[in-house]
Design a protein that fits this description.
Glycosyltransferase; Beta-galactosidase, Chain A, domain 5; five-stranded antiparallel sheet; 16 helices; alpha+beta; elongated
């Protein structure tokens, strides 16, 4: 059992204790001058010195709200981080964080310091020695002199400049206005923002909205119209985002940067900080969303033996990581602790946790997702059409699987030479003679409706596929019309089912069962099961024992798969997929699902 799982996480004191428990193991990893954290030797696209600064800075996402909320546990930790801050901004100290340049990672880490200037100006600025105050301003003001990505990064500069305003320092107000106006162009409706037009993911929630609500909290007197707009957009998206969470506390594994883990709940923390509620989502429901997700994460084996967060999702895993994931990067998860800035008597802390059950089916056209949930609210499945990412590791797997599940998560490929190494769950993969397997990457056109999603895609030259995904409860029907100029092999994967569950002490094998035949393939274990039934076009079923560490949730998995051989011309492939929460497996396809399938046959 995880060392933090015994914390009940019901009260403000519980959450504050958890935040301190997460920070305490980091103290021995600080450099002599306390300005950098050395948490490991894996690399990122920026150098080790910047990675060390990143780790130091990300702890502040928890420490600053704790100081604002006068949590006594924060004081000894702040004494250490204060020393590191003074040294990090001092150009004459050997641990100086350095002069930045365009598109610099250190811009990201400046954002929390801008928030600190707003939230705890006395502690973070006025109580520093005069030379340290001057150094802090000079170092942070570098962000106003260089170009940065034109996406959620603009908010980093916004927070720095409003921080300057709050302590009476010169701010680049023209730059601030330009950045805020630019951020407006990223708003697309229904509460959704995007980094790139065809990419919707958690960055809308834990970046755009999080920073927007920090802005609303501290700029209401100076910019009331914009602050009201930020708050209203958060209200709009709150019930839509709530549909990403199931009743077990899990949120949807989807998109990039999933190593930030319990940052999934940071949006709810920012809602509490800025006083944002929504219809059906009062303080009790928001509290359940935030704490329920935290409780689930604390039961996962996401820490090393010293209690330090690892790179990974459901367990330590470097394979799926992005190039910007350094050893300290997972501590962006500390953004969830913004709620500790609120006093014990705040309605959030006084509220009794309450269940919130989103609709059984929710079409979110801006997110380009059709979300469904089981009748018992124990799992969520999202069907995707129209999302496509650029320049991220495993971007196709993170955005373009057919279905994403809170129960099963998804898998990423080690290489595309074999089904075992490709780990093709929740996708159709095809290959030509002696070629590599190709899955969905981009789209020609797409459509979303409350009953299905559809899209046309080209996995390789000379191959075009029309796909329809039609959900019904914990089942869905997949229908593909494949037009190919060459012979193909095809593999249709269901969800990846665990072969064993990590975190058991002692390690115990989980009883799992697998079966395959001419018309089906299935796999079952105690944490869920999946079956795929062939209805047209497939030759046989196979349970693929994929390479370890390809699934985000479990180190070793099985993928029930249907196989087909396609001749040049047009072929119809139709199958039904069942995802079970309780480990049971159906023997037959329900009549209702067969009626849906008849539309495709």
């Amino acid at each position: 059992m995880n060392r933090y799982a015994e914390n009940p996480l019901r009260t403000r004191a519980d959450v504050a204790r958890l935040a301190c428990d997460l920070i305490a193991p980091l103290v021995p990893c600080l450099s002599e001058g306390k300005a950098r954290l050395h948490l490991g030797d894996t690399g990122a696209v920026y150098d080790a010195a910047i990675a060390g600064m990143e780790g130091f800075s990300r702890v502040l996402w928890a420490l600053v709200p704790m100081l604002a909320g006068k949590c006594p546990e924060a004081e000894p930790l702040w004494a250490i981080w204060r020393e590191g801050l003074i040294h990090g901004v001092d150009p004459d100290h050997e641990e100086y964080w350095g002069n930045i340049g365009p598109f610099d990672q250190r811009m990201v880490e400046m954002a929390v310091m801008g928030m600190a200037l707003c939230m705890i100006p006395d502690r973070f600025y006025f109580e520093l020695p005069e030379a340290a105050r001057s150094n802090l301003y000079r170092w942070l003001d570098q962000i106003n002199g260089y170009d940065m990505p034109q996406n959620n990064w603009l908010f980093f500069r916004v927070l720095v400049n409003i921080g300057f305003m709050h302590v009476g320092l010169p701010a680049d107000e023209a730059r601030l206005e330009d950045d805020l106006n630019n951020l407006e162009t990223h708003y697309c409706g229904d509460g959704w923002y995007y980094d790139k037009p065809a990419q919707r993911d958690y960055y809308t929630l834990w970046a755009f909205h999080y920073y927007g609500m920090v802005y609303a909290r501290f700029m209401a007197d100076r910019d009331p119209e914009r602050c009201a707009r930020f708050a209203e957009r958060a209200r709009l998206i709150a019930p839509r985002f709530a549909a990403w969470f199931d009743g077990e506390g899990r949120a949807l594994p989807y998109g990039r940067s999933l190593t930030y883990r319990f940052a999934q709940g940071a949006f709810w923390s920012a809602c509490a900080l800025s006083g944002v509620t929504a219809p059906g989502l009062g303080w009790g429901e928001i509290k359940r969303m935030l704490l329920g997700n935290l409780r689930w994460w604390m039961k996962r084996p996401i820490f090393d033996r010293d209690g330090i967060l690892t790179i990974g999702y459901g367990y330590p895993n470097l394979i799926f990581a992005e190039g910007y994931n350094a050893p300290g990067s997972p501590y962006w998860a500390m953004k969830v602790f913004a709620v500790l800035a609120l006093p014990e008597e705040h309605p959030f802390w006084q509220a009794k946790e309450a269940d919130y059950a989103p609709p059984a089916v929710l079409l979110d056209e801006q997110a380009r997702l059709l979300l469904t949930r089981g009748a018992d609210n124990r799992s969520v499945i999202a069907y995707t059409a129209g999302n496509h990412a650029y320049e991220h590791a495993h971007e196709d797997e993170k955005y373009e699987k057919f279905a994403y599940s809170t129960r099963f998560a998804f898998s990423v490929a080690k290489e595309a030479g074999t089904l075992k190494k490709g780990a093709f769950d929740s996708i159709l993969a095809v290959k030509g003679e002696r070629g590599l397997w190709h899955a969905r990457s981009g789209f020609e056109r797409f459509a979303l409706g409350e009953g299905e999603v559809s899209f046309t895609w080209r996995p390789m030259d000379g191959v075009e596929i029309d796909t329809r995904l039609i959900p019904w409860g914990n089942w869905h029907v997949r229908c593909h019309t494949v037009r190919t100029e060459r012979p193909l092999e095809a593999a249709e994967g269901g969800f990846a089912v665990a072969r064993e569950i990590p975190g058991k002490r002692p390690c115990e094998p989980v009883r799992s069962a697998a079966r395959a035949g001419e018309d089906r393939a299935s796999a079952r274990c105690g944490e869920g099961s999946c079956a795929v039934f062939a209805l047209a076009g497939y030759a046989r079923g196979e349970v693929v024992e994929v390479e370890p560490n390809t699934s985000l949730m479990y180190p070793r998995t099985l993928i029930p798969t249907l196989l087909a051989t396609l001749e040049p011309g047009e072929t119809r492939l139709v199958c039904a997929v069942c995802a079970s929460d309780d480990g049971s497996l159906p023997d037959e396809i329900p009549d209702e699902v067969m009626k849906i399938a008849q539309q495709c046959l």
